[in-house]
Design a protein that fits this description.
- The complex is a heterodimer of chains A (246) and B (126).
- Chain A contains nine helices and two strands, in the order H-H-E-E-H-H-H-H-H-H-H.
- With 246 residues, chain A is mainly alpha-helical.
- In chain A, helix 4 packs antiparallel against helix 5 and helix 5 runs antiparallel to helix 7.
- The N and C termini of chain A lie far apart (67 Å).
- Chain B has two domains: 73 residues; 35 residues, no CATH class.
- Chain B is built from three helices and two strands.
- A two-stranded antiparallel sheet of chain B has the order 1-2.
- In chain B, helix 1 packs antiparallel against helix 3.
- The termini of chain B are close together.
- The C terminus of chain B is likely disordered.
- The chains are: A mainly alpha (246), B mainly alpha (126).
- Chains A and B meet through helix 2, strand 1, strand 2, helix 4 and helix 7 of A and helix 1, helix 2, strand 1 and helix 3 of B.
């Protein structure tokens, strides 16, 4: 039985991994992987950032920060909140998107004491990379469906978000398996994480479908997933000497 | 490039301001409706523990659970810790507005600095 944890304070707003859930060496390794991942993201993101998309990307990060504050009930005594991986990947692409999520997590950890500093690496890996890229994989696989119109795009966004959240929750299970500091059995952690995050994934799916749908209705040109072939492929084609004169 | 750039720019600005206002509204107002139950990860971390409140209003964990090993954030003394303002949890909306603006400024600035500058204004006409 889980009671509300302190008077008045909405302690569960967002709430990412604290320090001490995963031992220090494991947290260090995941910090290092997160830094390498972000370096790759920065390198790749440049290609997707223009005068038009750069301001949009900053606002997408701010929007994810805002929506992560809204914990919605999933079971009596348990809530969930947006992770945002699918949302950012579909709107601004996976590379820019991973920087958006990492920025949100850093602001939360440094300014709002939400999530530990040692644990920031694992939080970034789970939400900015594992969850996000699982979502992106689903979204790319369903791109034809998404390009068919409103319902197709909403369905794609929902599925990408739902599967991505479960993927992100498995990130924690992996880290707990390697360096978990607690006494709870791995099997219990696995089944609880996946079960709860399947429910959270429904909420994530609805929020993602509504947001992506709204942006697509107003400015479809700002939805990264709908822009067809990745830009680097277009550029590679344009560089071929046999190509057209421009 | 058939459309005048000023009109495009205006349309872009209206959209971005609208997007920012929605984020501010969510963080500043909707945040008061957020569930105060522990989230998915927190629920798993608390599995096996009972949460009780001490007379001082602090939470205390009894039993064995993952959260028992959890440490307070090193920045737990931050003025905006736990989405309050100076320890006042009724100002969650203000904390949210600060968070949205800080994220938008850092994110927007960062992405603007590393953006692709070559090719002029027609480079992103896809």
């Amino acid at each position: 039985m889980v009671a509300e944890r302190s008077k008045g304070v909405a302690v569960s707003i967002a709430m990412h991994m604290s320090d001490g859930l995963i031992n220090a060496p494991t947290s260090g390794v995941f910090w290092a992987i997160a830094v390498i991942g972000l370096a790759v993201s920065f390198y790749k993101a440049r290609q997707d950032l223009t005068d038009r998309t750069a301001p949009m990307a900053g606002l997408v990060a701010a929007f994810v920060f805002a929506v992560q504050m809204i914990n919605f009930p999933i079971l009596p005594g348990a809530s969930g909140h947006l992770l945002g991986g699918a949302l950012v990947a579909i709107l601004v692409g996976p590379w820019v998107g991973s920087i958006c999520i990492a920025l949100v997590l850093a602001v939360q950890a440094l300014l709002f004491a939400d999530g530990g500093l040692t644990a920031l690496g694992t939080n970034i890996i789970n939400m900015a990379f594992i969850g996000l890229f699982v979502s992106w994989g689903v979204a790319v696989a369903l791109r034809r469906l998404a390009q068919r119109g409103g319902v197709g795009l909403a369905a794609t966004a929902f599925l990408a978000a739902f599967i991505g959240v479960v993927g992100a929750s498995l990130g924690f299970v992996l880290e707990y398996a390697i360096g978990g500091a607690g006494v709870t059995s791995l099997g219990t952690v696995f089944s609880l994480m996946v079960g709860l995050h399947a429910l959270i994934g429904i909420g994530e799916g609805i929020i993602t479908a509504l947001t992506v749908g709204a942006v697509a209705a107003i400015r479809p040109d700002l939805v990264y997933l709908l822009r067809g072939a990745p830009q680097d492929l277009q550029l590679r084609g344009a560089r071929q000497p046999e190509g057209s004169s421009s | 490039m058939t459309q005048p750039t000023t009109q495009q720019g205006k349309r872009q600005a209206v959209f971005l301001i609208g997007f920012l206002l929605v984020a501010l509204l969510v963080a500043g107002v909707l945040s008061y409706l957020a569930s105060s139950s522990p989230d998915g990860l927190d629920t798993v971390a608390l599995e096996g523990c009972e949460v009780t409140e001490t007379d001082a209003g602090e939470e205390e964990l009894t039993g064995e659970c993952i959260a028992k090993d959890a440490a307070d954030s090193p920045v737990a003394g931050s003025p905006f810790a736990d989405y309050g303002v100076g320890g006042n949890s009724s100002l969650v909306g203000l904390a949210g507005v600060v968070g949205v603006l800080v994220t938008a400024l850092i994110g927007g600035g960062l992405f603007w600095l590393i953006r692709r500058r070559s090719g002029g204004s027609s480079d992103d006409s896809s």
